[in-house]
Amino acid sequence: MRISIRKIFFVCVVLGGTAYGITILRGSHNLGGFEEKRRQIEQLEKENEKLQREIAEKQNYLGRLQQNPDELKLEIQRRLKLVSPNTKQFILQDGTPSDTPPASQPRP
């Protein structure tokens, strides 16, 4: 009964490979970890798409303001809460301003 060194080496390689495979599958980088990473990647891709849409909307809004000076003036007045003469502005309970048109005849 003669066992060759080649057969012993082959058995050691197979056992070592099996042990390595089991260690990898049960370790911190196991199959469940890969599934978790894939789910995180999908979540981040969705968030990235949402942010890209917000950026596009804001660029569109800025483009409209640059091309329309009247809208820009109204936006500046709204954000800085500026009121032009002969204009009344009421601030409601919820905090949103309510503009009223100037009176047709000024009061004496």
Write a structural description:
- The chain has a domain at 30-71.
- Helices cover 66% and strands 7% of the residues.
- The protein contains 3 helices and 2 strands, in the order αααββ.
- Strands 1-2 form a two-stranded antiparallel ribbon.
- A hairpin with a 5-residue loop joins β1 (88-91) and β2 (97-100).
- The model is unreliable at 103-108 (pLDDT under 50).
Low-confidence stretches: 103-108
Spatial strand arrangement across the major sheet: 1-2
Number of helices: 3
Number of strands: 2
Q: What's the alpha carbon Rg, rounded to whole Å?
A: 35 Å
N to C succession of SSEs: HHHEE
Q: What global shape is seen?
A: rod-shaped
Most strands sheet: 2 strands, antiparallel
Strand content: 5-15%
Class by helix and strand content?
A: mainly alpha
Please tell me the overall pLDDT: 81
Topology:
Elements: H1 5-26, H2 31-67, H3 69-80, E1 88-91, E2 97-100
Antiparallel strand pairs: 1-2
List keywords for this structure.
single chain; 108 residues; mainly alpha; two-stranded antiparallel sheet; 3 helices; 2 strands; disordered C terminus
